[in-house]
Specification:
With 288 residues, the protein is of the alpha/beta class. The protein has one domain (27-280): NAD(P)-binding Rossmann-like Domain (Rossmann fold), CATH 3.40.50. It has helices spanning 3-21, 44-55, 67-80, 97-109, 132-160, 180-202, 220-226, 237-249, 261-270, 275-280, and strands at residues 35-39, 59-64, 84-89, 114-117, 163-169, 208-214, 254-257. A 7-stranded parallel beta sheet has the order 3-2-1-4-5-6-7, sandwiched between helices. Strand 1 (35-39), helix 2 (44-55) and strand 2 (59-64) form a beta-alpha-beta unit. The longest helix has 29 residues, at 132-160. The termini are far apart. It binds NADP nicotinamide-adenine-dinucleotide phosphate (NAP). NADP nicotinamide-adenine-dinucleotide phosphate binds at residues 40-46, 64-66, 69, 91-93, 118-121, 141, 167, 169, 214, 216-217, 219, 221-222.
């Protein structure tokens, strides 16, 4: 056999052994009766996460701004098998809301096992226009409210050996065009929560932090925002939601969905200086 053949043969054997001995660390039963506070639960990936948690038999508090939509999601969760479901409408652009939402969840569920931070304010997928006020507002919704929710929930998560799940984006690892403010909020999440993870470990805390890095997902909002502007295929929201739920349950530090985004992020760090040019070729822009 030629050397190349030998290498391929050996690689095949190793891959086969890995597949044979690999044990899925995700235990669906661990989510039965788990107490979950889920933000951005009225639409998109958050709505799909609500249905997954419901199928696994969790007790859920849903939050977003639109009450009528939350009511519908709650009803569907109950038909899918959730043990308990409550909802609380809240606008995370108001600094008083995060504390109120956590107190509501504690009152209804008696504690929390998962805090799943997923909501985002309306995203403008466009060139920077100089609107500093919008950036300030988006920072409150996408970043400061996450910090506030976390601060309010940490004591109860500590008691339950619970998990913080933070939904971020590839735009929070790699700067991309048309996302100045959004990208800034997502980089901020990585900085804050990755630093907090170190501190919790140093304090021998029981709380895990899972940061979820997502690529383009086929939610209504994302498809509408990016239509005609990117050459990328969107991945299904239900699958993205399941990857997040599993990542939180297995206490993974980071989840990449689709999985190959991990390689993309590594390549971005390691690759030569023309990486920006390659990245920009996936975006449409014609100067006015
Ligand atoms: N879709 C993608 O391509 C993609 C890619 C990478 C990362 N992600 C991340 O995945 C997560 C979910 O994204 P998505 O596409 O599912 O978003 P989405 O469909 O736009 O849903 C956003 C959710 O946040 C809620 N929300 C909006 N403004 C709010 C506010 N001021 N206060 C409280 N809640 C608010 C919305 O409900 P109401 O309108 O009822 O408030 C909705 O439930 C985000 O963290 C996003 O950054 C998404």
């Amino acid at each position: 056999m030629k050397p190349v053949g030998k290498v391929l043969y050996a690689t095949g054997i190793v891959a086969g052994l890995v597949v044979f001995f690999w044990e899925d660390p995700f235990i669906p039963e661990s989510l039965s009766g788990a107490r979950v506070l889920l933000t951005g639960a009225s639409a998109g990936i958050g709505e799909q996460m609500a249905y997954h948690y419901a199928r696994f038999g969790a007790e859920i508090v849903l939050t977003a701004r639109r009450e009528a939509v939350l009511q519908k999601v709650m009803e569907k969760c109950l038909t899918l098998g959730a043990k308990k479901v409550f909802y609380i409408p809240a606008d995370m652009s108001f600094p008083s809301e995060p504390e109120k939402v956590v107190q509501f969840a504690l009152q209804k569920l008696g504690g929390l096992d998962y805090l799943v931070l997923n909501h985002i304010g309306r995203t403008r997928f466009q060139m920077w226009t100089g609107d500093v006020e919008y950036t300030r507002w988006l920072m409150q919704v996408n970043f400061f409210s996450y910090v506030e929710l976390t601060t309010a929930a940490l004591p109860t998560l500590e008691q339950s050996r619970g998990s913080l799940v933070v939904v971020s984006s590839v735009a929070g690892k790699i700067p991309t065009p048309f996302t100045t403010s959004y990208s800034a909020t997502k980089f901020a999440l990585d900085g804050f929560f990755s630093s907090l993870r170190h501190e919790l470990t140093m304090q021998k805390s029981n709380v895990s932090i899972t940061l979820c890095i997502l690529g383009l997902i086929d939610t209504e909002a994302a498809l509408e925002n990016t239509r005609g502007k990117v050459h990328l295929r969107a991945a299904p929201a239900a699958e993205a939601a399941l990857a997040i739920v599993r990542g939180g349950a297995t206490r993974a530090h980071e989840v990449f969905y689709p999985w190959w985004l991990h390689q993309v992020c590594c390549l971005w760090v390691l690759s030569p200086s023309n990486r920006g040019q390659v990245l920009r070729s996936y975006y449409n822009y014609s100067s006015p």
